[in-house]
Design a protein that fits this description.
Order of helices and strands: HEEEHEHEHHHEHHEEEEEH
CATH architecture: 3-Layer(aba) Sandwich
Keywords: Cell shape, Cell wall biogenesis/degradation, Hydrolase, Peptidoglycan synthesis, Signal
Protein name: Peptidase M15
Distance between the termini: 26 Å
Family: Belongs to the peptidase S11 family.
CATH superfamily: DD-peptidase/beta-lactamase superfamily
Shape: globular
Low-confidence stretches: 1-38
Oligomer: single chain
Structural class: alpha+beta
Organism: Streptomyces showdoensis
Number of strands: 11
GO molecular function, one term: serine-type D-Ala-D-Ala carboxypeptidase activity
Length: 317
C-alpha cells in the first residue's frame, strides 16, 4: 500500500448533519487500520480498501457521507503552488456570491493584469487593458489556465489590494479550521504559501458546495474574447471517468499538486470523493511534478472507482 496511512483527525473533516461529512478518530495508535469487534463502519471501510498512497509528499482522501479514508505523508505545511487559487475563488464567491449559471458583474482589466499576461515566468491568462469581463469569466480564467494575473486582478477588485485580500484568505482559512495553512499571495506563486493535504481537503469540501465553483472546475476549456482558440483546463484528470474537478498546482519548490473531486458509483448510489495530493517530484521541474501528481491521483481515483462501491456494500450489509 506504499507508506503506512495515518488516519485523519476529527478536525480534518467537519460534521455537516445528515448526508454530510463525518469526522473520524485519529486511529494512529496500536492496531490502526485493523477492524475490531468495536470497529466503526468507517474503520471497517478503511480496512477493506487498499489505496495506492503516493510514496512521497502528502495525500488525503474523504468520501461524502462517510468521512476520511486516510492521510499519508505527514502533516508539515508544504508549498501548494496554484492549488491556492481554490481559496482565491472561494473567497471571491464568499464576498460576491453567484447563483448557478449567473455571470455576475463586469470587471475591468487593469494595466497591471494586462502587462502580466505577457509574462514568460509564470502562468497567465491572455487579457487586455480596458477589457470588461464578467466575474464568472474571470473565475474560469483563474481556475482553468491558472492565470496568476487574474488571481491578482480579482484580489484588487475584491479588497482594493492583494495584501488586503490575502489577509481575508487567511481569516477564512482560520475560520474553516485550516490551522496549518498560510497564504502569502492570491496566486500561489510564492513558495511561502503553504498548507497540508488535510487542510486543503477541508477547503475542497467547502469549495464543492459553491455551485458556480463546482461548475467551473468541471469545465475542460474556456475562451476569452479576442484570443484565438480555447484555453484548456490544466487538470487532465478530468479525462478520467467520474472526475469533476478541481485544481492543479506546480512549481519547482512545490513539485506537483492536485486537489481533485470524483463521483464514484452508479445510479442513485453515487458518492462524491475528494482528494488532495501534494509534493510530487518536488524540486524537479513544474511539468515533471504535475505529471506525477496527475498520475498518482489517477491511481487513487481508479482504486476508489473499482473498490469503493463493493466495500461500502460490505460494510452496510
Amino acid at each position: 500500500m506504499g507508506r503506512r496511512a495515518v488516519w485523519a483527525s476529527a478536525a480534518a473533516v467537519l460534521v455537516a448533519g445528515a448526508g454530510g461529512w463525518i469526522g473520524l478518530s485519529d486511529g494512529s495508535g496500536p492496531g490502526a487500520g485493523r477492524p475490531t469487534a468495536q470497529a466503526s463502519p468507517q474503520a471497517a471501510l478503511r480496512a477493506r480498501l487498499d489505496l495506492p498512497w503516493p510514496e512521497e509528499g502528502q495525500a488525503s482522501v474523504a468520501v461524502e457521507g462517510v468521512g476520511s479514508l486516510g492521510v499519508s505523508g505527514g502533516r508539515e505545511p508544504v508549498p501548494i503552488a496554484s492549488v491556492a487559487k481554490v481559496m482565491t475563488a472561494y473567497q471571491i464567491l464568499r464576498d460576491h456570491p453567484l447563483r448557478a449559471g449567473e455571470d455576475g458583474p463586469e470587471i475591468t482589466v487593469d494595466e497591471t493584469a494586462a502587462q502580466e499576461s505577457h509574462s514568460l515566468s509564470e502562468s497567465a491568462a491572455p487579457v487586455r487593458q480596458g477589457q470588461r469581463l464578467t466575474q464568472r469569466k474571470l473565475l474560469e480564467l483563474l481556475l482553468l489556465p491558472s492565470g496568476n494575473n487574474v488571481a491578482r486582478l480579482l484580489a484588487r477588485w475584491d479588497a482594493g489590494s492583494e495584501e488586503a485580500f490575502v489577509a481575508r484568505m487567511n481569516r477564512t482559512a482560520a475560520s474553516l479550521g485550516m490551522t496549518r495553512t498560510r497564504y502569502t499571495g492570491a496566486s500561489g506563486l510564492e513558495a511561502t504559501t503553504r498548507s497540508t493535504a488535510e487542510d486543503q481537503l477541508t477547503l475542497a469540501r467547502r469549495a464543492m458546495e459553491q455551485p458556480v465553483l463546482r461548475e467551473v472546475v468541471a469545465m475542460r476549456e474556456t475562451t476569452v474574447p479576442g484570443h484565438p482558440g480555447p484555453l484548456a483546463n490544466t487538470n487532465r484528470l478530468l479525462d478520467e471517468p467520474g472526475v469533476i474537478g478541481l485544481k492543479t498546482g506546480s512549481s519547482t519548490p512545490a513539485g506537483g499538486n492536485l486537489m481533485w473531486a470524483a463521483e464514484v458509483g452508479s445510479g442513485a448510489a453515487r458518492h462524491l470523493v475528494l482528494g488532495v495530493v501534494l509534493g510530487q517530484r518536488a524540486h524537479t521541474s513544474p511539468a515533471e511534478g504535475l505529471r506525477a501528481a496527475l498520475e498518482r491521483s489517477g491511481r487513487l481515483v481508479d482504486a476508489l472507482r473499482r473498490d469503493l462501491p463493493s466495500a461500502l456494500a460490505e460494510v452496510r450489509s
